[in-house]
């Protein structure tokens, strides 16, 4: 039961963080390339990699990994933005966004993982 509380609390904070960053970023940046979602997903990949690499305790992983990151990162928004780019026939932007999201996501997850491993000793 306590795990459910950790997930719920982490999810609440992750969703709020995503909302704040999205609201601010979407006002600041031109939406042709969905930079805000890209930033959220790449930073979430890094943070999750850091968490997994650090092999922190189970409650912290449940709170941050499942709860916070589950609500903070946004695969569904990423896919919907891709559909919108396809509909607009923005092929170059679509390519940069998809390759950038997956490439940077994997890169930063790896950096985070090895950083967490290094921090843990």
UniProtKB/TrEMBL annotation:
It holds the Pfam family CRCB. It is a multi-pass membrane protein. Belongs to the fluoride channel Fluc/FEX (TC 1.A.43) family. The gene is fluC. This is Fluoride-specific ion channel FluC. The keyword Cell membrane applies. It is found in: Cell membrane. Its main location: membrane. It comes from the Bacteria. The keyword Membrane applies. It comes from Paenibacillus chondroitinus. It catalyses: fluoride(in) = fluoride(out). The chain crosses the membrane at residues 6-24, 36-56, 62-81, 93-115. Na(+) is not transported, but it plays an essential structural role and its presence is essential for fluoride channel function. InterPro entries: FluC (IPR003691). Fluoride-specific ion channel. Important for reducing fluoride concentration in the cell, thus reducing its toxicity. Keywords: Cell membrane, Ion channel, Ion transport, Membrane, Metal-binding, Sodium, Transmembrane, Transmembrane helix, Transport.
